[in-house]
Amino acid sequence: MTDRDDTFGDDEIEEGFLSEDEWDEEWDDDADEDMVSFVCEDCDYRWDEASEEENDAIVCPMCGSDNVTQL
Question: Against a cut of 0.70, is the pTM above it?
Answer without folding.
Answer: no
